[in-house]
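Exercise: predict the fold of this chain.
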Amino acid sequence: MTEYLSHYSVMLKECLEAMKLGSKASGSLLFADLTFGAGGHTFALSDHISGSTVYSTDQDPDALKNGEANIQHRGKEGKVHLLPMNFEEFPAWCEKNQMQGKFAGILMDLGVSSHQFDKMERGFSFRAEAQLDMRMNYTDSSTPTAADLLNSLSEKEIADLIFNYGEERLSRRIAARICELRQKKRIETTAELEDICFHAYPAKDRHGKTHPATRTFQALRIAVNRELTVLEDTLPNLLPYLSVGGVLAVISFHSLEDRIVKHTFKEIVEKEDFPATILTKKPLTATEEELSENSRSRSAKLRLLQRESQLGRVDGIKKKRQNKIQQ
């Protein structure tokens, strides 16, 4: 797993504008990209904001290896720092390194990287047969794989997982079929799970816009990597490390993530521990120009929160700043 496949940096222009806004308002040139991936957002920050230093995190061994090589190739040593960790560990790292109130901007792109989807042996996609792995950090033997979950959880647990994380209306039918087949042999591959999902759907619904396996695969990936739990636990703990004026930017790709971001931002403002203003009453979405270049941006939603010196408003929109970002 040495070749790292290309990745489109979603809503890059909007993210750069948000980070520049945070830098101008705070006077800081320190940034964090908590989902490094192929490094698109990180290197863009470093390239377009003069004098900046970027700390980035990732737990994927492929991303880390590729990232370190790119840092050297681009001559970014000392300007870009890649931290090998899940972003849930970032607040503790900040506390240890006395980073309170220092970041002009913190960015999170919650999408699964194109590399993880397109590198078929990772097991994230049903487009080719592979082992049902789905771990972001495939070297972590303590994390159960997707196959481990399918072959160990009860039928009810599987159905609830698929329904809650995949919003799959046929979750009970799919779970029942999984448990029926695993009595004969362990379910190991993406092709086996795809076939189960496909035939769980009525024949008339099997060839719609969304493949019958899409929501189940999403649900398993979220469960394996604890994505929603990690997001819920991490977001509220980032505000202490933003400078006054600094901006927290989060790109989500499905309703479950976006709901967490939206509600957490409101809770942060209401709680008033750290004065903040929501800059996006409605999330920003990709432009038509971007969608023509990258169809995967279609579901992206960007929400922005700015730390303030005085209390903000729950529904607060700073229209001048909002317009500037949208231009």
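Check your answer against the key: Residues 255-271 form the longest helix (17 residues).
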